[in-house]
Write a sequence for this structure.
């Protein structure tokens, strides 16, 4: 690891000010990607501004018809929250399967979505639940937040404050983990929203990050059952391909995981 | 603790310090004034080194020196060598290319070191290593062993034309060809054995220091065999004279073979410590471990099995190409030859065998012994062919094996080995029963009702341990003898220290060796210490690998104990005025048979050291040493049965049951043996399902971290169903065979045989990734539909 300056921010405004002063600063939202990258000397931020101790970013609460999760909430806290388990069971499942126990006790939802790893779980959860990301500057619909691989709509000094999830009628998540990293080879989040509309969001498989499958959404709109999507295949050409799985295999996993997510919902 | 002898499930004496974090590993060693080394490594698989510019690095904070290959060669440091001479079938010696610890001219694999920086801190050393500018001229590279043999392939070493190191054979070719001419059925297969990275929990490390006052060197290092390291470093590499070099291998966190060898880094630290005038520490990071630890396996083979009309095996013909990597590591040449093809007879009575092995250079990390070393490759090949032949002729795989088993011992195979003892029916029967083999059809049907594919597969492995009779391995080309030594020191107060040339790096020697003494003298195991891993303490030793510490290392201890016992009895007889023949040792006491006269072990020990009243002419003291050279290999064997359930939608394989019925000969500590089998099975299942060191066509390692290299984890393996079935090994005093590698040797074919049984397609290479299995399920289903 190269030398770096660590700052613990007490508030969102202090964090923004600290990053503004840094030569090449990075926000630290749990560090489960950034710190290993730094240890391998593949990243060398001059300053780290730790967001996880900011009181405003902590906690899970119900606001109207939505569950709002603070950005510094760990995966473990999401997975074990009674509120999330009752109202967003698919998201509780998703959070309980991120990485390993050590990762789940350090990694945060804000950190994960700001990194937007194309194989991370949360992007599917946010898009699949039609969530809204509240930042230090504005509110962004999940679909507009995730721009591409490791790319989000966030500006350099913009900080995720919370994520608001409208409570659905049904939700479910199923992933096929990469055998080595245990990231998603294909993770599919399905939900039936309060208004009856359906969302199917896929992570891990797409060559451009999280994506929705309109054909599946439409099929599930009339028949909420695994069989409804069994014959629907995403385009191989839009899928990632690497030593762990070809694009053809990943496309197959999208269909299989979609069926299992619905069965679990 | 208590008196815990042979057969006791004694808890491990060493675990208190390991579990409480009090182990002392090489990286825990801190010497005054110590600097840190960081290596400058090639990013290219094959390139000329046109120049190394260290001027910027030398100006950086804390930097002592930047050393490169020219200085190393200039100081007379020798090339790294392979210590086992193999001759090609035309009689010519193997073609070994030069390997310098820091390469001044041509790098041949990604990660090869070209320079080293020594600085005050590890971070400074790494920063400076990044600042060393190496001017490379890239050359074409080849990573695939078959491609390396092609005409026009990039050439690695001028010494090895066509990248061919040797073209070796074993067995009777004419007799084997004749067997095939007379065959009623021939099974033919292409078999690949995938390349693996050993991944011990503790990466390699070295702390080297040079004292110019007495011109003496000390090297703390992660070694399975510190005396061999000292011998090679002094006799061949000319780093330090043997009597002026102390090698200490303290607690070592796993080796699996990868810490047998002498690597460039440890040797460079020793050399650099004198050059810079301060102790030098280097600790490999995980990426360096992936890139530079000796890899394992990597064979491409063709196998043919000839059967007569009664399904008896007539002959086996094998052609193998073995990838040895860019350089010949210390014992690399022996792995695909004498440790591999001599086991091709398996548990079977095969009248004729011929194997041809071509070993080739490629632009990849060196390949050497890894848990099993040659025997997993032989077992995988043979047990895949046997299973396939049984299926082709329509026999039950168990019956086919049983029909061809060797039934009487000793049995001379056509490939050197003479099996001394075994009962292959016994382990097969035990495994079939434990696996409820007869109930499989019902389980398969039940799984099918849930949309899952069940399969069952077996493997009847044999291996050769206890390496090895020195004269025998010498005649086969080994540069060393493979005996072992021990010294038993009884202290004046009756406690015992055993100095052994074996080295424990996870095997639990401090416990099992103590059990041996506890058994012999009736002493509490707390009164016994096992001393190992320090060339200044232990007389000499060949180290631990090849499951040899029990059969060879403990046999040396037994010989020393015999001498101690004889002398103790003489003293006791003298003191109690009895006949030596009447002295019995029991429960920590020396007794005169048939009387109530007795002396405690402590009293006899004290008498030996006070020397006030010893038999006429006896030397004081109670300390004896012994060397033990085995008379034969030992032959652990067994049957493994794997049952899998496959999800045809994803191709995921779940191992629902794994049965191991092993014959390890005499077992000292069943708990430790089970632990060894558990670990071996996890690595074998890892090879079968998950692990693969993949290089791209340019020689870049694609799996250089745990993000891409799939280590087996707890949820990848089932709870194992183990049993042992003892036939005593006649070749050593304890009747032991060895258990350290069997799990890794026997399990891969059982897993693949189970999967291919489940999916009805035989064309499956390791690792059986979910995608491969899914694709085969799909094509099987397509064929079934047509």
């Amino acid at each position: 690891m190269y030398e770096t300056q660590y700052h613990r921010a007490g508030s969102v405004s202090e964090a923004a000010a600290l990053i503004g002063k840094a030569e090449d600063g990075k926000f630290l939202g749990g560090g489960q990607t950034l710190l290993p990258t730094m240890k391998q000397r593949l990243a060398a931020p001059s300053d780290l501004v730790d967001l996880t101790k900011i009181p405003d970013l902590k906690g899970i609460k119900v606001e109207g018809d939505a569950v709002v999760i603070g950005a510094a909430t760990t995966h473990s806290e999401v997975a074990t929250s009674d509120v999330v388990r009752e109202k967003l069971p698919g998201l509780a499942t998703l959070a309980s399967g991120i990485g390993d126990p050590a990762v789940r006790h350090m990694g945060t939802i804000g950190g994960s979505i700001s990194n937007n790893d194309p194989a991370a779980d949360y992007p599917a959860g946010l898009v699949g639940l039609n969530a809204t990301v509240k930042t230090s500057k504005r509110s962004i619909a999940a679909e507009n937040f995730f721009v591409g691989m490791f790319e989000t709509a966030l500006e350099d000094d913009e900080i995720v404050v919370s994520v608001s999830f409208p409570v659905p009628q049904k939700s479910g998540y199923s992933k096929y983990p990469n055998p080595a990293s245990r990231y998603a080879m294909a993770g599919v989040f399905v939900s039936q929203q309060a208004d009856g509309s359906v969302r199917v969001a896929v992570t891990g498989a797409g060559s451009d990050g999280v994506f929705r499958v309109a054909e599946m959404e439409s099929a599930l709109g009339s028949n909420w059952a695994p069989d409804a999507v069994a014959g629907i295949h995403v385009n191989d050409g839009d899928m990632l391909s690497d030593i762990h799985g070809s694009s053809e295999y990943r496309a197959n996993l999208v269909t299989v995981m979609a069926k299992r997510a619905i069965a679990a919902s | 603790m208590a008196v815990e002898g042979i057969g006791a499930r004694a808890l491990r004496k060493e675990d208190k310090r390991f579990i409480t974090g009090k182990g002392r590993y090489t990286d825990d060693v801190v010497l005054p004034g110590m600097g840190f080394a960081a290596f400058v490594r090639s990013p290219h698989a094959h390139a000329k080194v046109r120049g190394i510019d260290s001027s910027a690095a030398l100006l950086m904070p804390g930097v002592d020196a930047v050393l490169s290959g020219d200085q190393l060669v200039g100081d007379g440091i020798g090339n790294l060598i392979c210590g086992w001479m193999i001759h090609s079938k035309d009689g010519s010696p193997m073609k070994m290319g030069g390997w310098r610890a820091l390469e001044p001219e041509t790098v041949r694999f990604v990660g090869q070191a070209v320079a080293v920086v020594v600085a005050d801190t590890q971070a400074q050393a790494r920063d400076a290593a990044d600042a060393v500018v190496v001017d490379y001229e890239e050359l074409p590279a080849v990573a695939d062993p078959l491609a390396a043999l092609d005409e026009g392939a990039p050439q690695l070493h001028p010494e090895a034309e066509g990248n061919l190191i040797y073209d070796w054979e074993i067995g009777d070719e004419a007799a084997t060809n004749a067997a095939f001419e007379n065959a009623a059925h021939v099974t033919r297969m292409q078999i690949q054995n995938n390349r693996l990275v050993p991944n011990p929990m503790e990466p390699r490390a070295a702390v080297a220091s040079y004292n110019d006052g007495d011109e003496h060197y000390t090297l703390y290092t992660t070694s399975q065999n510190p005396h061999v390291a000292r011998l090679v470093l002094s006799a061949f590499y000319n780093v330090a004279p043997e009597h002026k070099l102390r090698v200490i291998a303290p607690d070592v966190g796993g080796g699996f073979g990868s810490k047998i060898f002498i690597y460039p880094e440890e040797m460079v630290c020793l050399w650099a410590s004198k050059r810079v005038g301060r102790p030098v520490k280097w600790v490999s990071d995980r990426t360096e471990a992936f890139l530079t630890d000796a890899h394992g396996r990597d064979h491409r083979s063709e196998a043919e099995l000839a059967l007569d009309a009664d399904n008896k095996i007539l002959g086996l013909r094998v052609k193998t190409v073995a990838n040895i990597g860019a350089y010949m590591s210390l014992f690399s040449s022996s792995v695909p030859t004498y440790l591999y093809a001599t086991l091709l007879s398996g548990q079977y009575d095969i009248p004729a065998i011929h194997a041809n092995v071509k070993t080739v250079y490629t632009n990849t990390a060196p390949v050497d012994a890894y848990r099993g070393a040659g025997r997993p490759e032989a077992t995988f090949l043979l047990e895949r062919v046997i299973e396939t032949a049984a299926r082709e002729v329509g026999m039950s795989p168990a019956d086919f094996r049983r029909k061809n088993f060797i039934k009487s011992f000793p049995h001379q195979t056509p490939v050197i080995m003479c099996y001394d003892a075994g009962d292959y029916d016994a382990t097969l029967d035990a495994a079939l029963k434990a696996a409820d083999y007869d109930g499989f059809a019902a389980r398969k049907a039940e799984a099918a009702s849930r949309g899952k594919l069940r399969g069952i597969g077996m493997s009847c492995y044999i291996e050769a341990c206890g390496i090895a009779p020195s004269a025998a391995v010498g005649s086969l080309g080994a540069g060393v003898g493979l005996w072992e030594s021990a010294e038993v020191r009884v202290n004046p107060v009756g406690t015992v220290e055993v100095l052994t040339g074996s080295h424990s790096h996870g095997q639990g020697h401090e416990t099992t060796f103590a059990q041996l003494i506890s058994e012999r003298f009736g002493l509490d195991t707390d009164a016994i210490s096992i001393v190992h891993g320090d060339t200044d303490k232990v007389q000499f030793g060949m180290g631990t690998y090849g499951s040899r510490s029990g059969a060879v290392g403990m046999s040396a201890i037994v010989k020393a104990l015999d001498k101690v016992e004889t002398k103790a009895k003489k003293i006791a007889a003298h003191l109690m005025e009895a006949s030596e023949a009447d002295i019995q040792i029991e429960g920590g006491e020396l007794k005169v048979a048939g009387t109530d006269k007795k002396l405690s072990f402590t009293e006899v020990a004290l008498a030996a050291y006070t020397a006030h009243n010893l038999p006429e002419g006896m030397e004081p003291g109670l300390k004896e040493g012994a060397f033990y050279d085995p008379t034969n290999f030992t032959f652990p064997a067994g049957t493994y049965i794997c049952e899998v359930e496959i999800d045809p939608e994803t191709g995921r394989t779940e191992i629902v049951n794994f049965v191991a019925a092993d014959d390890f000969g005499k077992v000292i500590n069943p708990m430790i043996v089970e632990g060894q089998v558990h670990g071996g099975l996890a690595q074998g299942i890892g090879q079968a399902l998950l692990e693969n060191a993949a290089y791209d066509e340019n020689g870049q390692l694609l799996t250089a971290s745990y993000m891409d290299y799939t280590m087996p984890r707890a949820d990848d393996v089932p709870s194992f169903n183990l049993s042992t079935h003892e036939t005593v090994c006649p070749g050593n005093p304890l009747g032991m065979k060895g258990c350290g590698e069997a799990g890794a040797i026997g399990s891969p074919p059982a897993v693949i045989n189970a999967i291919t049984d489940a999916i009805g397609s035989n064309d499956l290479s390791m690792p059986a990734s979910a995608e491969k299995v899914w694709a085969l399920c799909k094509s099987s289903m397509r064929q079934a539909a047509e």
The CA atoms of residues 224 and 708 of chain B lie 28 Å apart. The longest helix of chain B spans residues 549-575.
